[in-house]
Amino acid sequence: MKVRIKKIDRELLKRAVDIAEQGIQKGGGPFGALITLNGKIISEAHNEVVYSSDPTAHAEILAIRKACDSLRSHDLSGCDLYASCEPCPMCLGAIYWSGISRVFYASEREDAANAGFGDKLFYDELSKSPEERNILFCRIGDIDGSRVFKLWERYEKKIRY
Amino acid sequence: MKVRIKKIDRELLKRAVDIAEQGIQKGGGPFGALITLNGKIISEAHNEVVYSSDPTAHAEILAIRKACDSLRSHDLSGCDLYASCEPCPMCLGAIYWSGISRVFYASEREDAANAGFGDKLFYDELSKSPEERNILFCRIGDIDGSRVFKLWERYEKKIRY
């Protein structure tokens, strides 16, 4: 997909890098992100993994949660995300679930790997089948999980997403 | 990696499926998860995406966050996760970041896809290079993101994770 990068995209991405830098001083990891809707910033966050004791507290995840909170919706269609570094697989998954439209980033997964972060390794692991991974993934096929999906199908009040 | 599935693993996984079922009645999506440490349950959660307006509120993510909160650590090494369905790429990323040791699950990504969820699609997207994906991923290479990693390297108070 081709895109014409505008001056505002550069400015917003530079701001995401600045947020990452400020985050380090506050005890966060070296990552920053922000989300815009119609060109207006609706959330900003930096990595808080260690001081929040939360391995999911990446800049992008926190920015997505804040943006959703501010819009009171789990759907960020039409929003753009600017991240100081290429989002890791967890954040990429969250981006897909949120429906964010466009992602701009500065550093790449290899830069994060060189700084000691597992992003690239995790991308490689995700592409493997469950039984080939470093962590044990074990399906217990005779436990019936599909009954929940059948119940979901029959549940009249469900809101699909 | 081979594993001998114990009776307790079946019981815990069945409980994760029960949690998923109960979650539907509470307005959640059809997914449940729990985390154990030394065979003891330390957190349980079901999907809360819609009613929490939070696309990251998957059962596994919430269970990880609760477990970390209870242990006051971002590191869940030695813990096991039981999930009613194969974790999606976002949750898989969170599992890697948390250091969880073993994952047991019942349904597979194809079952979730058949129930209308994007898990399989997102797995396929993650394996693609950024420029081949459905969502626009644009690196702006001349914005210097690597300066943050250099600052991180020099930062004496950093806690690596």
Describe the structure using short key phrases.
alpha+beta, 161 residues, globular, homodimer, 7 helices, 43% helix, four-stranded mixed beta sheet, 19% strand
Descriptive overview:
Two copies of one chain form a homodimer. With about 160 residues, the first copy, chain A, is an alpha+beta fold. Helix content of chain A is about 45%, strand content about 20%. Chain A has a four-stranded mixed β-sheet. Chain A is globular and about 55 Å long. The model of chain A has no long low-confidence stretch (mean pLDDT about 95). At the A-B interface, helix 1, helix 2, helix 3, helix 4 and strand 4 of A face helix 1, helix 2, helix 3, helix 4 and strand 4 of B.
Order of helices and strands of chain A: HEEHHEHEHHEH
Helix content of chain A: 40-55%
Number of strands of chain A: 5
- Sheet bearing the most strands of chain A, described? 4 strands, mixed
**Count of DSSP-assigned helices of chain A:** 7
Structural classification of chain A: alpha+beta
Low-pLDDT ranges of chain A = none
Largest interface: A-B, 97 and 97 residues
Beta-strand share of residues of chain A: 15-25%
Q: What is the first-to-last residue Cα distance of chain A?
A: 25 Å
Radius of gyration of chain A, in Å, reads 18 Å
Oligomer: homodimer
What is the residue-mean pLDDT of chain A, rounded to a whole number? Answer: 94
Neighbour order of strands in the largest sheet of chain A:
2-1-3-4
